[in-house]
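$ fold --in a.seq
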Amino acid sequence: MSSNWTVLLDGTSLPDRSLIGGKAWSIARMRGMDLPVPPAFVITTAACNAYLAQGDFPEGLEAEIEAGLAWLNDATGRHFGGADKPLLLSVRSGAAISMPGMMDTVLNLGIDDAAESALATESGLPDFARDTHRRFLELYASIVLKMPVELDHDADPAGWRAQVDVPATPRECLTGAVRAVFDSWNTRRAKKYREHNGIPHDMGTAVTIQAMVFGNLDDRSGTGVLFSRNPLTGEASPYGEYLPRAQGEDVVSGKFTPLPLDAMRDLDPAAHAALLDATARLEREHRDMQDIEFTVQSGTLYLLQARSAKRAPDAAVRAAVEMVGEELIDIDQALSRVSPEQVRALLLPRLGTGAQDAAIVAQGEGACPGVACGTVVTDPDEAERRAAAGEAVILVRATTSPDDIHGMIAAKAVVTEQGGSTSHAAVVSRALGRPCVVGVGDGRGPQPGALVTVDGETGRVYAGELPVEMPDEAGDSRLAQLIIWARERSPVRVLRPADAAGLDGVIDIDALWSGGEPDELSALLHGASAARGVTLANPDTARIARAQGVQTIVTEPVLPALLALLGEAA
């Protein structure tokens, strides 16, 4: 199909990620590897940007969507909008740079009364067909109509559609869903996430339109998320969760607590074995830790997406060092995969002795390691407001959604009552580097106004502010290895104070600069050959020193500065 606005994801080519987005790129890559992926086509980021600029679909897009639907009909042997063997669709966002949970998705699009009847007859499972119909109406109401509803499971479709005024035809529903995905690029939550992560606002999102597979079909169906390595620790073993008789939104929403991945092996060993085989292939192909979304339909595995996994700081360091030893990546790649901010997070205070005797006010699953103290707030707007005033706050929610991103950014840690380690709260907290505890139980979260300490490794929330200890980068073998590699490549010598005795001509920044404007620091450092101070452990400050020609920095810890300087050299 020759087009300006859409691309078929048939595995015969690998279009540019900036044009089709990360999700579609991964589908094209997996289909090219002959992995089991439902067929799909994608509306490009160029179409999104044209839509946002003019407020409507660009000329020719509707015709190209029709051609893409015809191709999907042929590829699946089903028919979108048909009353016999109906084709249902997943309509998903996908930016070139991963923004997990920030934009919108509509599942089961294409179902109506006739399609429900046809699915019930074809499958012999009327409850499945009815459940799929309800799921579509709830998601369409929330995402497209902006009127979230929870429909009575025991009601009939006529009653549901009296509450949810969806368009008359599946084709009109598809147009509404595509518009909603385009519009989600400029939502408050998406903008906040991009600003926090330095992602440009002009990239736009693609829209992937894919044939549905059904994890809610029967007892041999389900859905899950798998990491090729543990995203909390970096351990080189598969880590994930599985939810039987469910669809993907059930897992990421955090409203349901999935089972460990081992449960999938017990329920369907063949699908589990196929998943582990595909996971190993994808990690070797991408040479990076993978985050894989999958569905099992009546015992058959389907892969929906594979991307580089968001990982906790501990996992980033361990995976980078061990992948060098496994000859998956080289040293330069390893150094590029650990950010100065991740190392700084690792070197933040940890719980000291005596914590084991403190009162535990909540216990859940550790979803992102780290320790943080603060006052409990339950509203993301309040968290943002109080943090801006200089207060340390802990955001506690029943479960988080993309609309909570500003509060998660502002908070020192996140706690949820529901969800597991692949829920929205867990994934986004790892991306932000926030300690996170999930699944403490409905109504069992710490109370608003309480001062608590959150331990994102053990999954415990303690009463009060507990004593902490400072980690030592030199005492950690993996951090020490990164220091050796980084020093061999750094354009600036970075020394600990203990190693800089007798060094002459060193400017003491801590004594001369009070942390004001960067221009003041630049003026102080201009022309200096050496500088010392704890301030220089900050990546931004180390970069300023490099820009002013400083050749030796004396600070502690040294690794954040070294990694920042390597980034400047690159």
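$ fold --in b.seq
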Amino acid sequence: MAVEPNTSERSGVPEWIAPMLASPGSPDLTVGPQWIYEAKLDGYRAAMRIAANGATALTSRNGNDLTTEFSALCGVLAAGLEGREAVLDGEIVVYDTDGRVDFDALQERRGRYRKHAKRHPGDPFEDPVEVRYLAFDLLRLGADVLVRKPYEHRRALLEQLPMPDPYQASVVTAFPHEKLAADRVTPQALLDRVSAAGFEGLMAKHRSGLYFPDQRSEVWLKHPTTHVQSVLVCGWRQGKGRFAGMLGGLLLGAQDPTTGDLLYIGDVGTGFSDAARHDMHARLVPLARARHPFAAEPPRDQVRGAQWVDPVVIGEVRYRRFTSGEPRLRHASWRGIRDDITVADAVLPRSHSSPAPPRAPASAPRAPEPVVGERITVRVGTRHLSLSNLDKVLYPTAGFTKAEVIDYYTRIAPVLLPHLAGRPITMIRFPDGVGGQQFFAKNAPFGAPSWLPTVRLPHRSSRTEGEDTIDYPLIEDLPALVWAANLAALELHVPQWTVGPGPVRRPPDRLLFDLDPGDGATIVECARVAERLHEILTADGLTPVAKTSGSKGLQIYAGIITADPAQPSAYAKALAQQLARETPERVVAKMAKSLRVDRVFIDWSQNNPAKTTIAPYSLRGREHPTVSTPISWEEVRACRRARDLVFTAADVLNRVEEQRDYFADLARTRAPLPRR
């Protein structure tokens, strides 16, 4: 988490609380008596931190100090607080002459501030465009930190705060569901009204929702009327015609939220003023690089004439549609640079080319799940667990419910749990089922049972400055596994190492080759590559074990002994490159998708200690409830059709009754990892 220590120490303002982020709402507007609605604002998200003496600090959503830039807002609430400290969450906005929020005017004001700060560092900034702070949450009042209070409680306290000058600071109007019903106004009609008034859409906030700093929560859902996307500027083109000699357009990228890969998502050439084109050109020239920064080769015809840059400038575009097959923004228009967000915010949007299925309110990584449907209490071992929404369909195509997910994990536990023991767990949760929003959950969520073991490990992220920590759950018994399944954690991912007392991260004990078929190839081609890997690994004194990924590919493991965390990656890379040289028509060792056509990519990078891989016997969040399944080498050699190595939950439960656990060989056959 980014921090702002200097401001806090200098003025005595309360500590910054990193903002909670909203999750995208489904195309069908979220409705029900448990929801309160607010207009979605179009400005700069900012925390207003006020000391007992009235000193004020403004902090952006990524921890940057905005106090000097918006000094006119400092002290506007001090008189009403009567000596109490406070931390408010809200938005800094500018209104136009028609009383509409005007983001473009705010951006232009920021441009003037940057020039002022460069020419007159340290001098006060005065601008004719007035700004206003619109508060929508109260996170601290006096000595009370309120983040663990329900939203409805925080909102009531916020509305009681005096607003001495409502033209400079005020509270965003809230529309509880019962008030709309009393006025015979539907939430959809409210959305239409706020859209006509120039707002971006509606926010739906759960009455009982807690505030989860620095996390994206589903107790807040955003329903925009227009789509806005954070992007990374990855290149630019020279202008033509009237724009000759200026920047013509930008080539954009965003990160795949599942893999972290930077992908090309199209370009934008409209929405710039001439001044903005000149300013952007000046900003990009020093960032020049020889090659594109994307994980896969972008289409040549779409990037012809591009001048590539390091992807560090974050911007924002409006767009009409996003297509996920070939990830592209359609009809994009530039909105401006966003210094108040981080690179981690520029992730692929959900596809808008077809509506997603309606969804019920779900929970966030640290949030207790809002109650939808019946709850029951069951005894699992020596623990009592509260299970909910057991009839909720998590695999719509197969009609596979949460109850069936829990049943599968309960019955597979004897062979699954030994492969999870001692390994920090990363869950991929599907609260609305496959096809709905999914998210990675590394931290043990708020509300996790006190008996659940966790391990605190250091973690470095692009969203933090320096080193942070994560409290990973450890799933080592049946109650913990059932608890995870009840969270709709369909996928369980683990690293290739375990933790010991301390906690101490032990050296890797598994070597992994992830065989991923490119376009035109299938798991059949992976099986042929796996046979060659088997020969080499066996010759090197290792005992390879195979399992399906549960998706399209195969994964080959070997139990190893090494004291060097970097050695598995080095060994795997050398071996992958060897196979790519021996059979270039069959194997590729480089990640670019354009090189994988009709070939198998050997992903050796999965041995990086920072990466995790799907656990054996884990379900996958695919169309059907397929499972990452350990298989015999006889099955690998016999594979001639892709469907030969596809196993569903029912298939795997039958297999473990009839066959041994092939993955158990890893622990019994560990051998020193040779160097290549």
